[in-house]
Write a structure and sequence with these properties.
alpha+beta
Length: 232
């Protein structure tokens, strides 16, 4: 079942896991969210998990091994149920405890890391599915609020200056270095934050896609706070 009103023309909200997958992307809608509320304590899970690397994958056995309060157990049950449901859909979810992502600082005028607005691309039909259980959460933005960085006049000129090859290979150079996946915000752009606990399905750029792919970015992490993120 769809929920109304929608917070953004690119977003459709639903009230169940099944509806999240039954609803097709259409027109401007390239982000569908199952909106949830709970008093479960995901922070307790984060506090007990061990960060081994900047991005640490958490297994289901890691979760089961935690000694949790009733509200912490409820949070664990939500994560486990999400994984079971997603696997039944054929997805391969991954649960990550993360401090930060790698930063692309090769060039000072363009970034291609996940903190930059970007789209996901796949050679086969698929969707990006994610949920931030705890910590800072991702942003999405309408496609008409951004332009490709490679098409921004100043950025494009600088890319031409670093490109070493004949003109016919320039577009291939942009693709090979992922410059064609990243976006620059236009004035008065209005990002939409995906929030915590909600499960989201975002449109990916693939050969059979009928809508524009969803432009999104990872958040800057809050000081002294880890994120608990499911993504597939």
């Amino acid at each position: 079942m769809k929920l109304t009103p929608n917070p953004s023309p690119q977003v459709e909200l639903v009230d169940s896991f099944q509806a999240l997958f039954d609803l097709e992307f259409y027109e401007q809608v390239n982000a569908i969210g199952w909106i949830r509320s709970t008093n479960a304590d995901f922070k307790e899970i984060v506090d007990q998990l061990k960060l081994k690397e900047e991005i640490t994958e958490v297994s289901m056995s890691d979760l089961y091994a935690l000694n949790l309060s009733v509200s912490g157990q409820k949070a664990r049950s939500i994560i486990i149920e999400d994984f079971k449901n997603l696997e039944l859909q054929g997805a391969q979810p991954s649960l990550n405890l993360l401090k930060s992502y790698p930063i692309d600082d090769e060039f000072d005028f363009i970034s291609t890391d996940v903190y930059s607005f970007h789209v996901d691309r796949s050679p086969v039909p698929t969707d990006t599915i994610l949920c931030t259980y705890y910590g800072a959460s991702s942003d999405i933005i309408p496609n008409d609020h951004v332009i490709l960085k490679k098409d921004h006049p100043e950025i494009r000129q600088k890319l031409l200056e670093i490109y070493e090859g004949d003109e016919s290979g320039f577009e291939s150079f942009l693709t090979e270095n992922y410059f064609d996946l990243h976006y620059h915000e236009l004035p008065l752009a209005r990002p939409y934050n995906l929030g915590n606990i909600h499960l989201w399905r975002l449109a990916v750029d693939h050969p059979n896609q009928k809508v524009r792919p969803c432009v999104h970015r990872a958040p800057k992490e809050n000081d002294n706070e880890l994120r608990l993120l499911m993504i597939c």
